[in-house]
Design goal:
Helix content of chain B: 55-70%
Largest sheet of chain B: 5 strands, mixed
Shape of chain B: globular
Low-confidence stretches of chain B: 1-13, 519-527, 569-576
Number of helices of chain B: 17
Largest interface: A-B, 84 and 101 residues
Oligomer: heterodimer
Distance between the termini of chain A: 61 Å
Number of strands of chain B: 9
CATH superfamily of the largest domain in chain B: Cytochrome c oxidase-like, subunit I domain
Structural class of chain A: mainly alpha
CATH architecture of the largest domain in chain A: Up-down Bundle
Bound molecules: protoporphyrin IX containing FE, copper (II) ion
Strand order of the largest sheet of chain B: 3-1-9-5-7
CATH topology of the largest domain in chain B: Cytochrome C Oxidase, Chain A
Low-confidence stretches of chain A: 1-5
CATH architecture of the largest domain in chain B: Up-down Bundle
Order of helices and strands of chain B: HHHHHHHHHHHHHHHHHEEEEEEEEE
Structural class of chain B: alpha+beta
CATH class of the largest domain in chain B: Mainly Alpha
């Protein structure tokens, strides 16, 4: 048995987690108050947001400095890989809950409401089908057609998956130009995607009558695409950071897990979009 | 103590913070383990006081101490606090302290994130406990948070949702940390199949947590938007369904109960070999049993929903799948017993708790099996029987394992031996009173006392009083534990590195206390062929278990054909030749049908009067009113319940699939004997059939 530390980098005590906890506390309290129209809610929520942003900048800044000063050995790198993998798995399960709700609505609750006793006793005349606002919600809406913006968005995200991989090739072969260009293109595609989505939401609310309150269709539509959009936003921000670091000369061909983590994340967001496109927009 | 360990560690170049700041900013797994422990202890006190209040209210019928709304808040908060605030953090405390020591890692893989995982918990704890004092009080619809009731609450409901989000984030980060530590930071030579079982159980628990906490987060997010932002996930008017919440919740909830017990299995598997002075019996089978339990736990959530309405086929599936879990659980129990078999046993407090765990957890497992049977559960769902079940698995299971682990590892953590005299008092008082507390609840449940009720009918008074008395003694006895722990921290006989002479494992090779020392070894990667083989086997096992789960219903049919299981009823006839002509029992026949628009299902118009022991035939009628072929199936039930035992059906259409062509009309005979054992005072018996359509209804 040897008592060498084995080179695994163990960080010193840090106040950032504490900042993060306080920030989340403030944000959650603020959101609760805001929902109930109570005084101070907005302020607390904003303070929490600022606190959280500060923490992220401070914490990740520290990790980046540690990485650049060579403290992260191969084993730390391996830990990051496992960690990111598990994290993405947890995200998959989060989306699974909402996909579950979508499938349940389409295959079970809506057909059930349109048949049998429920039909006779509760809502005679409800015909079911999909998309639907459900039997008791009085709102007419047009479903979102898959072949306009959504199809375009699919194209955008898929190409962004390609550009980020192209950037990775550049990084591995030491072609910094290709790396930076690839990253910049990926960020741009991500941002265009988000722009389209904002437009699509606006269009849904104003022209189609499709709102969050439009029954089970509206609920699953906005929650699924909304959480996905949030993930694209986060992914784009992370990509921007990576781009900044790359411009500052960070990353080596053999040591760049931060880049890979973000690209894993980006591919994950991509795959979720494909499922969204198929099950929410198309079928 | 520390001098002989780890000569120079990277973080010791910094001045270590002291006082409160040390605890707020620490990145040391041992400090963080201690924090988790004291958090769990504090929440245990709060949740325990709530339990005392609940038992005090239930001490006698009528409303004495609290109003019904407050009572409901108490039971809800008690459940949430004990699950998320006590058992889970306590197990995480063990993981933090023990996993790095046991696998020879210098610390957790992500020490800073480890700190954050912990410091999120007090935030959630403050939200939960604080919500009791908000206008409208805390959440009162039960820890399961079912809509539509959950839709109706006030501000504390939203705060609770956020508390759950925050606890979820904490658990997910904690689990990522633990899983990564185990997968990536083992000492050289420690292949997966050489890890202590406690580490294995935590690896699998971490996997379960990462898989299901996000699902819970999704479920409560839907509650949040349904409550506040106009979505209709759980509202039938919008095409949603409150039952959908139950599906999502229990998809989280059942794996969650295994999250609450797998680490317990790990602790017990460490304690029993030490005090039996024998290696754990069947190590590999333990690993595979743990993995199969984890996988099966994703496939059985419906057993919490037998009464909410689901197709008969789904009920059958969930029943068989749930019963199947008994197999790997049984493997474990047998392995523990086999470990003790012919060992040189001694009964230190840790071992006492471990042995009590094996006995009493098994009782909880058995009542779980009882509840897993659909016809039984339909009677028992939401009664005290369920309360008895989950308290046996959680209190005498999870909590007792935590006690066993504390008595076992405290010497390692504090450097002092535990005071065995106090420990034994704590054990015996707890072990006796906990049975006085929870065992009568089985009887209450069988007699029909509903759970979550502050007042009850007079006939339940005696058992409730007994349970409350047991509860007060159990509650008071826990003060002894606090004393034991404090004594152990403050002083006592010095503990050696190997605090128990029968103990094996890396943690016993470092000095006691192991405080601040961080173990360091040359690290092994994940490349060992052995690891890959284990992983491959686990994947194959996972696939096989999934496949097996889905093949259960057809397999059961084959099984019945082979064994003639369903023909048993016919044999009952032979024992039943004598007719009791001295009395008659009136049998009322009832027919219920789902989807009355499609089917007509009718019982004979008149009740029949039969002599006990007499062979009787009656006929039901079934007609397909629609224009297409239909399939359905009938399920019988009896009132009063006691009559069921005396109904011997020789031929019956129940449980059989009926296929009807459009507008076809058939007669369904039932041939039965009401046996002579039926009580004399039972003058009227109702036999009712409920007919369900099978397959997709459109
Ligand atoms: C042999 C293994 C087990 C089986 C077959 C089993 C079966 C069941 C069934 C069928 C129910 C539903 C009862 C009802 O609501 O009508 C139930 C409830 C419950 N079980 Fe188990 N169980 C087992 C082990 C466990 C373990 C190990 C735990 C936790 C450590 C646990 C915790 C619970 C809890 C908390 C509930 C009540 C949930 C609620 O409605 O609030 N069970 N169990
Ligand atoms: Cu369960």
């Amino acid at each position: 048995m040897t008592t060498q530390p084995g080179g695994y980098y163990l960080p010193a005590p840090s106040h950032w987690p504490l900042v993060g906890s306080l920030a989340l506390m403030s944000a959650a309290l603020g959101a609760t108050l805001l929902i109930h129209d109570l005084a101070g809610g907005g302020w607390l929520l904003a303070a929490g947001g600022v606190g959280l942003a500060t923490m992220l900048v401070g914490w990740f800044g520290k990790v980046i400095r540690e990485s650049e000063s060579g403290l992260h050995g191969a084993q730390v790198d391996q830990s990051f890989r496992w960690g990111m993998g598990w994290f993405i798995f947890s995200e998959v399960m989060f989306f699974a809950a909402f996909f579950g709700a979508l499938f349940y609505g389409r295959m079970i609750s809506v057909p059930d409401l349109a048949g049998g006793e429920q039909l006779r006793l509760l809502w005679p005349g409800y015909s079911g089908g999909w998309p639907t606002t459900g039997p008791g919600v009085e709102a007419a809406f047009t479903p979102m057609s898959p072949w306009g913006i959504p199809a375009l968005n699919t194209l955008l995200l898929l190409s962004s998956g390609a550009t980020v991989t192209w950037a990775h090739w550049g990084l591995k072969r030491g072609r910094r130009g290709q790396l930076n260009l690839g990253l910049a293109l990926t960020v741009a595609l991500g941002l265009i995607f988000l722009g389209f989505q904002v437009y699509e939401y606006h269009y849904a609310y104003t022209a189609l009558g499709l709102t969050l309150g439009a029954g089970i269709y509206g609920a699953t539509f906005f929650m699924l695409t909304g959480f996905h959009g949030l993930h694209v936003t986060i992914g784009s921000l992370m990509l921007l950071v990576i781009l900044g670091r790359s411009l500052a000369g960070h990353f080596r061909p053999d040591h760049h897990f931060a880049f890979e983590a973000v690209s894993w994340y980006w591919h994950f967001v991509d795959v979720v979009w494909l499922l969204l496109f198929i099950f929410v927009y198309w079928l | 103590m520390e001098a002989n360990l780890a000569p120079s560690l990277p973080d010791e170049h910094h001045a270590a913070p002291t006082g409160v700041w040390r605890w707020l900013t620490t990145t040391n797994h041992k400090d963080i383990g201690t924090l988790y422990f004291w958090f769990a202890a504090t929440m245990f006190l709060i949740g325990g006081l709530m339990a005392m209040l609940i038992r005090a209210e239930l001490f006698q019928p009528g409303l004495q101490l609290v109003q019904p709304e407050v009572f409901n808040q108490l039971t809800t908060m008690h459940g949430l606090i004990m699950i998320f605030g006590v058992i889970m953090p306590a197990f995480t405390a063990f993981a933090n302290w023990q996993v790095p020591l046991m696998i020879g890692a210098p610390d957790m893989a992500f020490p800073r994130m480890n700190n954050w995982s912990f410091w999120l918990l007090p935030v959630a704890g403050v939200f939960l406990v604080g919500s009791l004092f908000l206008p409208g009080g805390a959440v009162a619809g039960g820890w399961t948070m079912y809509p539509p009731l959950f839709m109706q609450g006030g501000i504390s409901y939203d705060l609770t949702i956020f508390a759950i989000h925050i606890m979820g984030a904490s658990s997910i980060m904690g689990s990522i940390n633990i899983a990564t530590t185990i997968l990536n930071m083992r000492a050289p030579g420690m292949t997966l199949m050489k890890m202590p079982l406690f580490v294995w159980t935590w690896l699998i628990t971490a996997f379960l947590l990462i898989a299901v906490m996000p699902v819970l987060a999704g479920a409560v997010t839907m509650l949040l938007t349904d409550r506040n932002f106009g979505t209709h996930f759980f509202d039938a008017a919008g095409g949603g369904d409150p039952v959908m919440f139950q599906h999502v919740f229990w998809f989280f909830g059942h794996p969650e109960v295994y999250i609450l017990i797998l680490p317990a299995f790990g602790i017990i598997s460490s304690v029993i070999p030490t005090f039996s002075r024998k290696p754990l019996f069947g190590y590999a089978s333990m690993v595979y049993a743990t993995a199969s339990i984890a996988i099966l736990s994703f496939l059985v959530w419906g057993h919490h929903m037998f009464t909410v309405g689901m197709p008969a086929a789904a009920q059958l599936y969930f029943m068989y799948a749930t019963l199947l879990i008994a197999v790997p659980t049984g493997v474990k129990v047998f392995n523990w017993v086999a470990t003790m078999w012919r060992g040189s046993l001694t009964f230190e407090t840790a071992m006492l708790f471990a042995v009590a765990f094996v006995c009493l957890f098994t009782i909880g497992g058995f009542s779980g099996l009882v509840l897993a049977m659909v016809p039984v559960d339909i009677q028992l769902q939401d009664t005290y029987y369920v309360v008895a079940h989950f308290h046996y698995v959680l209190v005498t299971g999870a909590l007792f394992s935590i006690y066993a682990g504390l008595y076992y590892w405290l010497p390692k953590w504090t450097g002092h031996r535990v005071n065995e005299t106090w420990g034994r008092w704590h054990f015996w008082l707890s072990a006796v009173s906990v049975n006085v507390l929870f065992f009568p609840m089985h009887f209450l449940g069988l007699a029909g006392m509903p759970r979550r009720i502050p007042d009850y009918a007079l006939q339940f008074a005696d058992f409730n009083r007994v349970a409350s008395l047991g509860g007060f003694i159990f509650g008071a006895s826990q003060i002894l534990l606090l004393i034991v722990i404090l004594k152990c921290i403050r002083g006592g006989v010095k503990a050696e590195a190997r605090a128990w002479e029968g103990a094996e494992g890396l943690e016993w090779t470092v000095a006691s206390p192991a405080l601040h020392a961080r173990l360091g070894y040359e690290q092994s990667g994940m490349s060992a062929a052995d690891n890959q083989r284990t992983s491959r086997r686990l994947v194959v096992l996972a696939l096989a278990m999934f496949a097996f789960g889905f093949a259960l219903v057809p397999l059961y049919d084959v099984f019945c054909d082979l064994t003639g299981l369903n023909r048993d009823a016919a044999q009952a006839l032979a024992n039943n030749t004598q007719v009791d002509a001295s009395r008659k029992v009136r049998i009322e026949l009832v027919a219920n049908v789902q989807d009355g628009a499609l089917w007509r299902f009718a019982a004979p118009n008149l009740p029949v009067d039969v002599h006990p022991g007499e062979l009787v035939q009656v006929e039901y009628e079934l007609e397909n009113l629609s224009d297409r072929p239909l399939i359905g199936r009938a399920v019988p039930s009896y009132a009063p319940l006691a009559a069921a035992a005396h109904f011997k059906k020789i031929d019956c259409f129940c449980f059989r699939e009926q296929r009807l062509a459009p507008h076809e009309k058939i007669r369904l005979p039932v041939l039965f004997v009401l046996d002579r054992g039926v009580a004399r005072d039972m003058k009227v018996v109702t036999l009712s059939y409920t007919f369900f359509a099978l397959g997709k209804r459109t």
